[in-house]
Design goal:
Length: about 290
């Protein structure tokens, strides 16, 4: 009889280690994919905000009018940053890019003074740029407005295409994660089915049976999420040490949101799966447990 009790106890003891390990691995994979999605969005914003609009000024524009135009452009809500480039600075940039010096051919510098500015990413589309161009051309001191029209069109199309792809991957991955964690917890709870049924047979209420298991589910889910968060952060640091460009894209607020999401998913799905398993075994007859 004593041997039977020990066997039942061993058989009823859930495999918490394997449960934690399984959920940790799934959350780690989800965290890595989440990090890639965050970086993809930041990379798209980075490319958008590095598109430059150049406003060329007339050669005879007075300094006062140039200053007024600079102030006008800098006050616009779509401007992220701006720079006034003189003819001399423009020539230096031209030569620094490896172009040939024209000094032996031309007596004067043909490059104009210009106001170069970058737009905030939410304003970077062809329709908005055309309106901005038309508005700036109305100024008598503006000789030309240039921006890479084809690049803007292709950039927006590619970002939209990749956003749809990443969103699809995220949704599919979310479904897979829920299924994997649910199956992992149900497998762990399977070893605990006799204990649940025994407690029910001696008169324990559903709430009394479920409470310690739900508490354990919260603890296990939190442990799994914390381990996964540490692993994801460690992996990110390793990648950033080898590729510094990823470090420039880091968004700490989005990182915190990602880690919070992992914690919520780890605890939420673990508790939900445990609750489902307890209800399932309470409804089953004793013979069905074997």
């Amino acid at each position: 009889m004593a041997q039977f009790g020990r066997a039942s106890s061993q058989r009823g003891k859930p495999s918490y280690f394997m449960s934690i390990l399984g959920v940790t691995l799934v959350l780690f994979f989800l965290g890595i994919v989440g990090w890639l999605i965050i970086n993809a969005n930041k990379l798209g914003d980075y490319f958008k905000e590095n598109v430059e609009v150049r406003v060329h000024l007339m050669g005879n524009t007075p300094a006062k009018d140039s200053a007024e135009l600079i102030q006008y452009i800098s006050s616009k809500p779509y401007v992220k940053k701006y720079e006034y480039v003189t003819k001399e600075v423009a020539k230096k940039k031209y030569l620094d890019e490896g172009n040939e010096d024209w000094s032996n051919v031309l007596d004067e510098n043909p490059l104009p003074n210009s106001i170069n500015f970058n737009l905030k990413q939410e304003y970077l589309n062809v329709d908005t740029l055309e309106k901005i161009e038309a508005e700036l051309r109305q100024n008598a001191n503006v000789s030309d407005v240039q921006y890479p029209r084809e690049l803007v069109t292709n950039l927006n199309k590619n970002i939209q295409r990749w956003s749809i792809i990443l969103l699809t991957i995220a949704v599919l991955l979310g479904i897979v994660v829920i299924i994997l964690i649910d199956n992992t917890i149900r497998l762990a709870m399977f070893s605990n089915r006799f204990l649940i049924k025994t407690m029910q047979m001696v008169g324990a209420t559903r709430g009394f049976i479920a409470k310690p298991l739900n508490i354990r589910a919260v603890i296990n889910g939190a442990i799994s999420a914390c381990i996964a968060i540490v692993l994801v952060y460690s992996a990110v640091l390793i990648v950033e040490n080898y590729y510094e460009g990823f470090r420039a894209l880091r968004d700490n607020n989005m990182f915190l949101l990602l880690f919070l999401l992992l914690l919520v998913i780890g605890i939420g799905i673990t508790v939900f799966s445990t609750y489902r398993s307890v209800r399932k075994y309470l409804r089953m007859k004793l013979d069905e447990l074997y």
